[in-house]
Structures are given as structure tokens and as C-alpha cells.
Design goal:
Two copies of one chain form a homodimer. By secondary structure, the first copy, chain A, is an alpha+beta fold. In chain A, about 65% of the residues lie in helices and about 15% in strands. Chain A is built from six helices and three strands, in the order ααβααββαα. The first copy, chain A, has a three-stranded antiparallel beta sheet with strand order 1-3-2. In chain A, helix 1 crosses helix 5, helix 2 packs across helix 4 and helix 5 runs antiparallel to helix 6. Chain A is globular. The structure holds a DNA duplex.
DNA sequence: CCAATCCATAACTTGTTAGTTATGGATTGT
DNA sequence: ACAATCCATAACTAACAAGTTATGGATTGG
């Protein structure tokens, strides 16, 4: 299982977070599409995607010579759990999110 | 204002996160108490505390020659907001899926 | 007043990581 | 079959971050 720690450091890098955010916003994207936006080289993007994949934050689907990546926001669940413990103040706001993620788990 | 990015990298380090968690769990602590738990030298702890303070995650109160640190979980707010947005992308998709399933039932 | 304590900063070392270029495997189109 | 495209990996470099020891300021106790 992925820990909140791995997710924190996985999303700690700005470029990597931007890639994940783009996948969330715009849906499935090829490596090349992500590279155009990222402002870094294609191998750099591939490495970031490997890290995100290890965290379970993205899924890849090969189609011909293209690889399509998509976001898996459910993988944020351990972060939600961590936050609900340490951000007691926002307990209520988070209960709703937790419910949603649990429904997805089923 | 502190961005979610600064919080992600601020909490990305395991030692730093452990310090913050200890402050959340056990309340106000001196630097020395934190050092005993942290497993690293006192200057290392001080540097981590400086980072956490820059993120607004801790507050320090000097009393004599001791400095008491305490957690400020409210500073996690930008992270909560970030999560709401990007866990929300999942919800939209889930809703669309629900719609689709409903239409298929008919 | 002097020694001891608590902490922060400075200076430095080292390990990690994000970036690069080079390359090769797999696939497609001609 | 061949050239071109898409992507991942390897190998390397450079930058940063986290650790160390050394030091000094501030405070307390004797």
C-alpha cells in the first residue's frame, strides 16, 4: 500500500504536480502532449510519470506506439486520511471527501 | 500567502513531517524534546522548524532560554483546498459514470 | 560574575534528485 | 523493408536539500 509519505514526496515536485493536475483537468493525454506543456524534455516527463505511476496516481494504456496516461485521483485517499487526522479543524469539510472516496473504493 | 506547492514540499520530508505530527499529537514542545524524538541533531531540527514556520505550520513562543513550538493545523488549508479540487475531478467522472449506468438501465 | 543550558546560524560535506543527451525497442506508414 | 515516430531507459551532470560540526547569542542558576 502507498503511504501518505510517498504521496507527499511524489506530489512535492512542482513539475510532477503540474503533470498530475493537467491529467486531472484535461483527461487522458499522451506523453508527448504532456511534454509540450511541461517545459522539460520528454525523458524527464517519462521519469515523472514513472514516479506518479508508482504512487498509483496515474494509469497508462498503450495504444500502438502511443502511451495514454490518465489520472487516478482515488490514489489520493491516504492523503485524505492523513489530513483528516492532522487537520482536525477541517474535519467536517473532509468527511464529505472521505465519503466520496469510499464510494469509489467499492 | 502560502501555496499548496510549498506545503507539499514542506511536508514532503519525512523528518519534518514527523516533527509536525509530534507537535499535533503531543501539543507544545521545546526544541530539545523534538530533538530527542527526531533522531537527528539539534541544528537539523532547528532548520526543519524554520521551514515549518515559513509554511505557517508551527508557531514559536520563547520562554526564557527555551523555545516552545506548537502546531498550527489551520495552515493546511491550501492543501485541503487543493485536495477538494483534484479529488473533485474524480467525483465529476463518477457522477458521469452514474449517469451512464442509469441511462443503460432504461 | 561565571559556568552551564537552550537554541539558531554559519560553514561545510554528502546524498539525492531533477534535469540533460544519447540510445534503443516497439510500432506505424509508405 | 525502411524511415519515421513515440516512448522508456541508461548514463551523466548539476543543483539542491538534509545532514553534520563548530560557534555564538541569550538566558538561567549558583
Amino acid at each position: 500500500m502507498i503511504t501518505s509519505g510517498e504521496l507527499f514526496s511524489g506530489l512535492g515536485d512542482p513539475t510532477r504536480r503540474a503533470i498530475f493536475e493537467q491529467l486531472c483537468r484535461e483527461g487522458e493525454q499522451t506523453v508527448w502532449m504532456l511534454t509540450e506543456q511541461a517545459g522539460v524534455s520528454q525523458p524527464a516527463v517519462s521519469k515523472h510519470l514513472a514516479v506518479l505511476k508508482h504512487c498509483g496516481l496515474v494509469h497508462d494504456r498503450r495504444q500502438g506506439r502511443e502511451v495514454h496516461y490518465s489520472a487516478k485521483p482515488q490514489a489520493l485517499a491516504p492523503l485524505v486520511d492523513w489530513m483528516s487526522v492532522y487537520a482536525g479543524f477541517w474535519r467536517e469539510r473532509f468527511d464529505r471527501l472521505e465519503d466520496l472516496l469510499k464510494r469509489m473504493d467499492q
